[in-house]
Amino acid sequence: MTKRPTFDAALQQLREKLMTMVSASQHALHEAIEALKTQDVAKADEIIENDKKINELEREINELAIMTILKQQPVASDLRRLIVALKISSDVERIGDIAVNIAKSVKFIGTEPHVKPIVHIPEMAAIVNEMLDHALHAFHNDDIEEAKRIALEDDRVDELQGKIIQELIDLMSEKPEFTNQITQLSFVTRNLERAGDHVTNIAENILYSVKGIRIDLNY
Fold first, then answer.
1. Cellular component per GO (predicted)?
2. Where is pLDDT greater, at 208 or 103?
3. Which of 12, 53, 99, 138 qualifies as a cystine partner to 147, CB 3.0-4.6 A?
Protein backbone atom coordinates (compact mmCIF):
# COMPACT_ATOMS: atom_id res chain seq x y z
CA MET A 1 0.00 0.00 0.00
CA THR A 2 1.32 3.45 -0.94
CA LYS A 3 2.47 5.70 1.90
CA ARG A 4 1.18 8.94 0.41
CA PRO A 5 3.61 11.57 1.79
CA THR A 6 6.63 9.38 1.05
CA PHE A 7 5.37 8.53 -2.43
CA ASP A 8 4.58 12.16 -3.24
CA ALA A 9 8.10 13.17 -2.17
CA ALA A 10 9.63 10.49 -4.40
CA LEU A 11 7.43 11.51 -7.33
CA GLN A 12 8.42 15.16 -6.87
CA GLN A 13 12.08 14.16 -6.84
CA LEU A 14 11.54 12.23 -10.07
CA ARG A 15 9.87 15.24 -11.66
CA GLU A 16 12.77 17.49 -10.67
CA LYS A 17 15.36 15.08 -12.04
CA LEU A 18 13.40 14.77 -15.28
CA MET A 19 13.25 18.55 -15.61
CA THR A 20 17.02 18.71 -15.15
CA MET A 21 17.49 15.93 -17.70
CA VAL A 22 15.23 17.60 -20.26
CA SER A 23 17.09 20.90 -19.83
CA ALA A 24 20.42 19.12 -20.33
CA SER A 25 19.21 17.40 -23.51
CA GLN A 26 17.73 20.65 -24.82
CA HIS A 27 21.01 22.42 -24.19
CA ALA A 28 22.98 19.64 -25.89
CA LEU A 29 20.73 19.78 -28.95
CA HIS A 30 20.96 23.57 -29.13
CA GLU A 31 24.75 23.50 -28.78
CA ALA A 32 25.06 20.77 -31.42
CA ILE A 33 23.20 22.92 -33.94
CA GLU A 34 25.29 25.96 -32.99
CA ALA A 35 28.42 23.86 -33.53
CA LEU A 36 27.08 22.85 -36.94
CA LYS A 37 26.37 26.45 -37.94
CA THR A 38 29.77 27.73 -36.78
CA GLN A 39 31.74 24.56 -37.60
CA ASP A 40 32.99 24.48 -34.01
CA VAL A 41 34.67 21.10 -33.63
CA ALA A 42 35.78 21.86 -30.05
CA LYS A 43 32.17 22.48 -29.05
CA ALA A 44 31.21 19.19 -30.70
CA ASP A 45 33.77 17.41 -28.52
CA GLU A 46 32.25 19.04 -25.41
CA ILE A 47 28.77 17.83 -26.36
CA ILE A 48 30.03 14.28 -26.74
CA GLU A 49 31.82 14.42 -23.39
CA ASN A 50 28.88 16.00 -21.53
CA ASP A 51 26.50 13.26 -22.65
CA LYS A 52 27.79 11.28 -19.67
CA LYS A 53 25.85 13.64 -17.38
CA ILE A 54 22.59 12.93 -19.19
CA ASN A 55 23.23 9.19 -18.99
CA GLU A 56 23.91 9.51 -15.26
CA LEU A 57 20.63 11.37 -14.73
CA GLU A 58 18.77 8.58 -16.51
CA ARG A 59 20.44 6.04 -14.22
CA GLU A 60 19.43 8.04 -11.12
CA ILE A 61 15.83 8.29 -12.34
CA ASN A 62 15.69 4.56 -13.03
CA GLU A 63 17.04 3.72 -9.58
CA LEU A 64 14.67 6.10 -7.80
CA ALA A 65 11.62 4.84 -9.69
CA ILE A 66 12.47 1.18 -9.13
CA MET A 67 13.21 1.70 -5.42
CA THR A 68 9.93 3.58 -5.01
CA ILE A 69 8.02 0.73 -6.65
CA LEU A 70 9.69 -1.85 -4.40
CA LYS A 71 9.30 0.11 -1.17
CA GLN A 72 5.91 1.77 -1.69
CA GLN A 73 4.02 -0.95 -3.58
CA PRO A 74 1.99 1.77 -5.33
CA VAL A 75 -1.59 1.38 -6.47
CA ALA A 76 -2.29 1.17 -10.22
CA SER A 77 -2.49 4.91 -10.97
CA ASP A 78 0.66 5.68 -8.97
CA LEU A 79 2.52 2.77 -10.53
CA ARG A 80 1.56 4.12 -13.94
CA ARG A 81 3.15 7.48 -13.11
CA LEU A 82 6.40 5.82 -12.11
CA ILE A 83 6.52 3.67 -15.23
CA VAL A 84 5.83 6.73 -17.36
CA ALA A 85 8.70 8.59 -15.68
CA LEU A 86 10.99 5.70 -16.66
CA LYS A 87 9.78 5.76 -20.26
CA ILE A 88 10.13 9.53 -20.52
CA SER A 89 13.68 9.44 -19.18
CA SER A 90 14.54 6.86 -21.85
CA ASP A 91 13.24 9.11 -24.64
CA VAL A 92 15.02 12.14 -23.21
CA GLU A 93 18.26 10.16 -23.05
CA ARG A 94 17.82 9.25 -26.71
CA ILE A 95 17.50 12.94 -27.54
CA GLY A 96 20.83 13.48 -25.78
CA ASP A 97 22.26 10.72 -27.97
CA ILE A 98 20.89 12.50 -31.03
CA ALA A 99 22.79 15.64 -30.00
CA VAL A 100 25.91 13.47 -29.86
CA ASN A 101 25.18 12.10 -33.34
CA ILE A 102 24.90 15.65 -34.68
CA ALA A 103 28.15 16.59 -32.94
CA LYS A 104 29.84 13.66 -34.68
CA SER A 105 28.57 14.94 -38.03
CA VAL A 106 30.03 18.35 -37.16
CA LYS A 107 33.40 16.70 -36.60
CA PHE A 108 33.12 14.76 -39.85
CA ILE A 109 32.36 17.93 -41.86
CA GLY A 110 35.15 19.79 -40.08
CA THR A 111 36.11 23.13 -41.61
CA GLU A 112 34.95 22.39 -45.15
CA PRO A 113 32.92 25.42 -46.33
CA HIS A 114 29.20 24.80 -46.11
CA VAL A 115 27.63 23.79 -49.39
CA LYS A 116 24.88 26.34 -48.61
CA PRO A 117 23.82 28.40 -45.58
CA ILE A 118 22.48 26.29 -42.70
CA VAL A 119 18.97 27.71 -42.26
CA HIS A 120 16.22 25.09 -42.15
CA ILE A 121 18.08 22.61 -39.94
CA PRO A 122 18.18 25.11 -37.03
CA GLU A 123 14.45 25.71 -37.60
CA MET A 124 13.83 21.98 -37.13
CA ALA A 125 15.92 21.91 -33.96
CA ALA A 126 14.09 24.94 -32.55
CA ILE A 127 10.72 23.23 -33.05
CA VAL A 128 11.98 20.07 -31.31
CA ASN A 129 13.17 22.12 -28.34
CA GLU A 130 9.79 23.90 -28.20
CA MET A 131 8.11 20.49 -28.24
CA LEU A 132 10.26 19.46 -25.28
CA ASP A 133 9.21 22.61 -23.40
CA HIS A 134 5.56 21.78 -24.01
CA ALA A 135 6.04 18.13 -23.06
CA LEU A 136 7.68 19.11 -19.79
CA HIS A 137 4.85 21.53 -19.01
CA ALA A 138 2.25 18.88 -19.89
CA PHE A 139 3.99 16.33 -17.66
CA HIS A 140 4.28 18.73 -14.74
CA ASN A 141 0.62 19.81 -14.97
CA ASP A 142 -1.01 16.60 -16.29
CA ASP A 143 -2.17 18.72 -19.23
CA ILE A 144 -3.50 16.27 -21.82
CA GLU A 145 -4.50 18.98 -24.31
CA GLU A 146 -0.96 20.33 -24.44
CA ALA A 147 0.34 16.78 -24.83
CA LYS A 148 -1.96 16.25 -27.82
CA ARG A 149 -0.77 19.47 -29.49
CA ILE A 150 2.78 18.12 -29.56
CA ALA A 151 1.79 15.80 -32.42
CA LEU A 152 0.87 18.84 -34.52
CA GLU A 153 4.29 20.35 -33.87
CA ASP A 154 5.89 17.07 -34.92
CA ASP A 155 4.09 17.42 -38.25
CA ARG A 156 6.00 20.68 -38.78
CA VAL A 157 9.26 18.84 -38.11
CA ASP A 158 8.34 16.19 -40.67
CA GLU A 159 7.43 18.83 -43.26
CA LEU A 160 10.75 20.60 -42.80
CA GLN A 161 12.60 17.32 -43.07
CA GLY A 162 10.98 16.64 -46.43
CA LYS A 163 11.89 20.11 -47.64
CA ILE A 164 15.51 19.82 -46.51
CA ILE A 165 15.99 16.34 -47.96
CA GLN A 166 14.73 17.53 -51.35
CA GLU A 167 17.15 20.47 -51.22
CA LEU A 168 20.01 18.12 -50.37
CA ILE A 169 19.10 15.77 -53.23
CA ASP A 170 19.18 18.72 -55.63
CA LEU A 171 22.52 19.87 -54.22
CA MET A 172 23.96 16.39 -54.66
CA SER A 173 23.38 16.71 -58.41
CA GLU A 174 24.58 20.30 -58.62
CA LYS A 175 27.68 19.98 -56.42
CA PRO A 176 28.83 16.36 -56.29
CA GLU A 177 32.15 17.45 -54.78
CA PHE A 178 30.20 18.11 -51.55
CA THR A 179 28.70 14.62 -51.43
CA ASN A 180 30.24 13.71 -48.05
CA GLN A 181 29.01 16.91 -46.40
CA ILE A 182 25.55 16.59 -47.94
CA THR A 183 25.36 13.04 -46.61
CA GLN A 184 26.21 14.27 -43.09
CA LEU A 185 23.59 17.02 -43.33
CA SER A 186 21.01 14.41 -44.31
CA PHE A 187 22.05 12.42 -41.21
CA VAL A 188 21.54 15.54 -39.07
CA THR A 189 18.09 16.06 -40.57
CA ARG A 190 17.13 12.45 -39.96
CA ASN A 191 18.35 12.68 -36.37
CA LEU A 192 16.21 15.76 -35.73
CA GLU A 193 13.17 13.98 -37.17
CA ARG A 194 13.84 11.10 -34.77
CA ALA A 195 14.12 13.60 -31.90
CA GLY A 196 10.65 14.88 -32.78
CA ASP A 197 9.36 11.31 -32.67
CA HIS A 198 10.89 10.82 -29.22
CA VAL A 199 9.10 13.93 -27.93
CA THR A 200 5.87 12.58 -29.41
CA ASN A 201 6.51 9.35 -27.50
CA ILE A 202 6.80 11.46 -24.34
CA ALA A 203 3.44 13.07 -25.12
CA GLU A 204 1.85 9.63 -25.59
CA ASN A 205 3.19 8.52 -22.22
CA ILE A 206 1.83 11.65 -20.55
CA LEU A 207 -1.61 10.81 -21.95
CA TYR A 208 -1.23 7.26 -20.65
CA SER A 209 -0.19 8.55 -17.23
CA VAL A 210 -3.25 10.78 -16.93
CA LYS A 211 -5.96 8.77 -18.72
CA GLY A 212 -4.68 5.20 -18.40
CA ILE A 213 -5.09 4.48 -22.12
CA ARG A 214 -2.64 4.28 -25.00
CA ILE A 215 -3.11 6.84 -27.79
CA ASP A 216 -0.88 6.69 -30.88
CA LEU A 217 0.16 10.22 -31.86
CA ASN A 218 2.76 9.02 -34.40
CA TYR A 219 0.28 8.48 -37.22
1. cytoplasm
2. 103
3. 138
